[in-house]
Write a structure and sequence with these properties.
Radius of gyration of chain A: 26 Å
Structural class of chain A: mainly alpha
Order of helices and strands of chain B: HEEEHEEHEHHHHEHEHEEH
Number of helices of chain B: 10
Number of domains of chain B: 1
Helix content of chain B: 25-40%
Shape of chain B: globular
Number of strands of chain B: 10
Strand content of chain A: under 5%
CATH topology of chain B: Rossmann fold
Number of strands of chain A: 0
Oligomer: heterodimer
Largest interface: A-B, 27 and 42 residues
Chain lengths: 265, 266
């Protein structure tokens, strides 16, 4: 059995090796398959990293497009929260009283959330640009819908997985599921929800930059233009704006997380 | 099967006054089985109003199961339980049940991210409307009630600290304060001090029993340390293999009875 397996593998290897060798003859080597100037371009790009374009003109453009990117990220995340919070609560099944209500709310919302997030924001952007044209709304919804799907899924799980003992204690104090939600589930899940939301905000900033390639304006759009102009210094300026933005959000989020974080003592 | 029909030995005088009132807990031939495993064999237990009863016995003797049944968290396989004359099975979970019985667990049953005061006031959740509960998350409602309960357990100065930052003993005291705010007629406590060191355990038991007596509530608690149980409770019930081994006033429990309860069998 294993001999035959080894034999067939040997044959397969030989066939693949021969077809690879044959395929090499099919390449027009003279037509510039490799970018012979590649190495110097890499050197040029790397060098420009230490000489970003700091002229006031470029800095102003950088600041303005940073603002655009922030605006897209925040409004996109707001839409994502509007989707993620209610659907997340429903998909945790925390408020359903009967078995079938629970199956329906968990199953139904999970399916919907899966649909939202299985389509990448870039594809949503194309769809919205096709539908409503190059408008800021397109970018906001393109970002908000898949992120809403992701947030909803994670919120649902965090709200579902909180320790059971405190909830049981609230139940025995006579609290209904809604009150248990507000006094038990939400406070216990909140630190993790907050920290995940901030992580998503960070992803949202990067995504908003990418979405601007679709022609919606922002840092990504300016990076693209700089690359087309082969102006690496300017490109690095915009990249540094992007990095600074992500770092600032990270500092902000860790400050907030420290306030809500708690270790079970 | 054993039927225990022992009236409260201490406070005989008040017995007359209470005689036509139903007992706080009247468990009749209750048992609990999980498949082939029997956690509690058919047993009966009566706890009078205002009486403090400690359940003692080795682990696996059925203490927790019995207490969970009394608290309405588990329903018995056979038999019935009446709380203050009302059939437990007919009490609706939620407010109606929470007015009869409140439960304190071993540990970890506070919400760690909420302040001690919020945790104590959660005892009022059965009475609050949802709107009042929401407002209370930001501006604690019935604040004086919560503070006075915290004062009763000696933790008033910790009111604003989040429960997760409190020590084990403080957490249990906050849990007691929550039950006091809930104000049920019967308090059930499952190993309330087993996670604490002996010195702190004694303090918490003293507060628990004292608060129950002061408010004239019946208290049923499982306690690991028999000495602690003997020192503070009115009555001791020895449980082993889901059966009642003895049931007598705390000061009349003999060394022999205790030794027999914990004796190892192969």
């Amino acid at each position: 059995m294993s001999d035959r397996f080894l034999g067939s593998r040997g044959v397969l290897t030989a066939i693949l090796a021969i077809s690879f060798a044959i395929s090499l003859t099919g390449i027009g080597w003279q037509d510039g398959v490799l970018n012979t100037g590649g190495l110097s371009a890499v050197r040029e790009i790397a060098g420009a990293a230490f000489q970003p374009d700091l002229s006031s003109d470029v800095l102003q453009t950088g600041a303005r497009s940073t603002w655009t990117t922030i605006a897209y990220a925040f409004t996109g995340l707001t839409v994502a929260l509007l989707i993620g919070l209610p659907f997340g609560v429903l998909s945790s099944g925390a408020l359903a009283r009967t078995y079938w209500a629970k199956r329906l709310s968990v199953g139904g919302t999970r399916l919907l959330l899966a649909f939202f997030r299985s389509i990448h924001e870039l594809i949503w952007a194309w769809l919205f640009v096709a539908a409503i044209g190059l408008s800021p709304m397109a970018a906001v919804f393109a970002l908000g819908i898949p992120y809403g799907g992701i947030l909803g899924r994670i919120y649902g799980e965090l709200l579902h997985d909180v320790p059971d003992a405190p909830l049981r204690a609230l139940r025995s104090a006579g609290a209904s599921e809604w009150r248990i939600f507000w006094f038990g589930r939400l406070p216990m899940a909140l630190p993790d929800m907050l920290s995940y939301t901030f992580y998503r905000l960070e992803c949202g900033i990067r995504s908003a930059a990418i979405l601007s390639f679709v022609g919606l304006g922002g840092l990504g759009h300016n990076i693209q233009i700089s690359l087309q102009d082969i102006d690496y210094g300017r490109m690095w300026t915009f990249l540094y704006f992007l990095v600074a933005l992500v770092v600032i959000v990270d500092i902000w989020s860790s400050m907030l997380r420290r306030r809500v974080a708690i270790e079970q003592g | 099967m054993r039927t225990i029909n022992q009236s409260k030995p201490s406070r005989e005088t008040s017995g007359l006054l209470r005689s036509n009132r139903p007992p706080a807990v009247f468990a009749e031939k209750v048992s609990k089985r999980y498949g082939d495993f029997t956690a509690v064999r058919p047993l009966s237990l009566t706890v009078e109003e205002g009486e403090t009863v400690a359940l003692i016995g080795p682990s696996g003797s059925g203490k927790t199961t019995l207490l969970s049944m009394i608290a309405g968290e588990l329903s018995p396989t056979e038999g019935s339980i009446r709380l203050n004359g009302k059939h437990l099975a007919h009490l609706k979970p939620g407010r109606a049940l929470s007015e009869e019985v409140g439960m304190i667990h071993q540990q970890f049953d506070l919400v760690p991210n909420l302040s001690a005061l919020h945790n104590v006031l959660a005892g009022r959740l059965g009475h609050w409307s949802l709107a009042k509960a929401l407002v209370s998350l930001v501006w604690p409602q019935d604040r004086e009630l919560g503070i006075s309960a915290l004062e009763r357990v000696g933790a008033a100065q910790r009111a604003r600290i989040r429960a997760g930052f409190l020590s084990g003993g403080e957490q249990q005291r906050v849990a007691i304060a929550r039950v006091l705010v809930q104000d049920p007629k019967i308090i059930v406590a499952d190993e309330p001090v087993s996670s604490l060191d002996p010195a702190r355990a004694e303090g918490v038991v003293r507060i628990l029993v004292g608060a129950a007596r002061e408010a004239d509530k019946a208290l049923v608690a499982s306690i690991h340390w028999t000495q602690l149980a003997q020192r503070h409770f009115d009555r001791l019930v020895g449980l082993r293999d889901g059966l009642v081994q003895f049931d007598s006033p705390a000061d009349r429990v003999s060394e022999k009875q205790l030794a027999g309860l914990y004796e190892l069998t192969e």
